[in-house]
Amino acid sequence: MDLLALFMSALVAATLLPAQSEIVLVALVLSGVHPALLLLAVATTGNVLGSCVNWAMGRFLMRFSDHPRFPFKPSQIHRAQNWYARYGWWSLFFAWVPIIGDPLTLAAGILREPFWRFLLVVGLGKFARYAVLVAAVQAAS
Predict the structure, then answer these.
(1) Within its chain, how far is the Cα of 101 from the centroid?
(2) Which of 44, 46, 92, 98 has the fewest Cβ atoms within 10 angstroms?
(3) What's the first-to-final CA gap in the chain, in angstroms?
(4) Cβ count near 12 (within 10 Å)
(5) Distances (CA, A) of 33 to 1, 10, 26, 37
(6) pLDDT single digits (tens) 53-109
(7) What is the pTM of this model?
(8) H-run or E-run covering 28
């Protein structure tokens, strides 16, 4: 059940819904119930999958962007498209950064970033972020 909670919090945190997967990950690392590498894998997988949802929305669902319940505001989309157009796929290494990361993954879908590269770059960036967090928690405890 712990691993499912971690997976779901990481998945939701990668979308625009409010969630903090870091809190769940830190608590589970401190509990010592599961190996740190397993927790790292589960958190990374959930968070990358959430980013894939954003990419798919950009790639396939932008025709609904005028709908009032569309999760990204036009200003967010425009800003992310400009950022992405300026810095290219390298910017996806920062998909883990709060506020800018989620719209970046949407922009990657809108601008038709190849999924294989999206998955590789976003996965590496998110893994690195969680790995630093796990290492810091282990060093402090």
Answers:
(1) 7
(2) 98
(3) 24
(4) 18
(5) 12, 19, 12, 12
(6) 999 988 998 888 888 888 778 888 788 788 778 888 999 999 999 888 888 898 899
(7) 0.87
(8) helix 21-31
